[in-house]
Amino acid sequence: MAVQKVLIVGAGIGGLGAATALAQRGVDVDIVEVKPDSHVLGVGINQPGNSLRALDTLGLLEECVSTGFSFAGNDYLDWNDNEIVSVDSGLGDERVPANTAITRPALHGILKSAAERAGASIRYATTVADLVDDGDGVDATFNDGSTTRYDLVVAFDGVKSPTRSLVFGPEVQAEFAGFGVWRLQLDRPAELRRAQVFQGISAKAGLIPLSEEHMYMFLVVPEPGNPHHDPADFGDLLKTRLEGFGGIMGQIRDAIDGPEGIVYSPLIELVLPRPWHKGRVIVLGDAAHTMAPHLTQGAGMALEDGIVLADEVLTDRPIEEALTAVSAQRYDRVKLVFDISHAILEAEMQVTAETLPYAVAGMRAELPGQTAFFESKLNAPFRTPQLRTPQPTIGN
Ligand SMILES: Cc1cc2nc3c(=O)[nH]c(=O)nc-3n(C[C@H](O)[C@H](O)[C@H](O)COP(=O)(O)OP(=O)(O)OC[C@H]3O[C@@H](n4cnc5c(N)ncnc54)[C@H](O)[C@@H]3O)c2cc1C
């Protein structure tokens, strides 16, 4: 096997998934993570059917489904809780749910345990200081001064990816989209068993069930100039941005009495041109493609990347050919998700008081068909059938 020892930079969702996929197939995997420990910030994360299929490939479907909350589709309403349209998801199948939302710490814990069970090692508070690729291997020097040689280096180091800058130059950066997302975990009302999405004026909010006890709310709004918000002000800022919402989102706004638990994320976007590798270093996950979270596909795209990588590099052929095949196989799928997510973001943020009735009519007429279209693409297999390696036997 040409690829026997791999370094993964970043122990996030994509890095841990790729480490599991490679280590389950017998590869010696080291992961380095710049954070001091495995603590993850954030509220919930939805895993649609295609992402759950990727987790299934890693042997983790049952654990994710039993830990999270599965739901069948989205109910769209206006910002006064008037129903617009309900859309059942066509993702998944009799075995895989359409959607399973889960807390970020729980998903992280499941992936970390899987990577370690499969034999991958994780070093925290560690990063790459330098990479020297001589064609036959890569010498990685770490921040503690040590150097180790690898057959392949895989960067899953997130949207600001220092490895991407090292390999493709510092000018390749994700761009602020002009909008931000506010999120908060809350108690779930018993009747909330599907995602609810509330269209307002230049604002979209939503509720996602997370467990029998909890849900999370999100709010997407313009954030002109990409401001830095002081976390101490998060409560007041979120309340202000929820002005105008009636119904349940209005009740949630009125109950906010401080910044505790509120997470703010500016929306940034990038699709790296192909190929996503140079020599023996490849950039994947958010480091290669960061998209608006409107289809809740970011983690799924990162997990799929890691599995396709394992499929491709463990075939018997030159590394250049295998790595070229990775981004060739991934690019169109990722770009479709990126483009649709961006189009939804722009359309919903352009809704004014005058255009709200037309937007509502358009959503009612268009959303079922649009959803069926992109879900048919996402339900298509993400792996080249002849390269699929057998279901993992190690670490389940
Ligand atoms: C508001 C919002 C909501 C979202 N909701 C969803 C959703 O519902 N469903 C979904 O699927 N996706 C969602 N996403 C997207 C999803 O979170 C990401 O796509 C996913 O986390 C990408 O995984 P990754 O491993 O590529 O990057 P990350 O998860 O960001 O992991 C990168 C890791 O690399 C580490 N790192 C960074 N630099 C270095 C370095 N120099 N050395 C070592 N380590 C380093 C970081 O500390 C981090 O641990 C959302 C995103 C946002 C912003």
From TrEMBL:
An example molecular function term from Gene Ontology annotations: FAD binding
Domain FAD-binding span(s) in chain numbering: 5-335
Alphabetical keyword list: Monooxygenase, Oxidoreductase
KW Transmembrane (keyword) present: no
Alphabetical list of Pfam families matching this protein: FAD_binding_3
InterPro entries: FAD-bd, FAD-dep_Monooxygenase_BioMet, FAD/NAD-bd_sf
PANTHER family attached to this UniProt entry: MONOOXYGENASE, PUTATIVE (AFU_ORTHOLOGUE AFUA_6G14510)-RELATED
Record protein name field: FAD-binding domain-containing protein
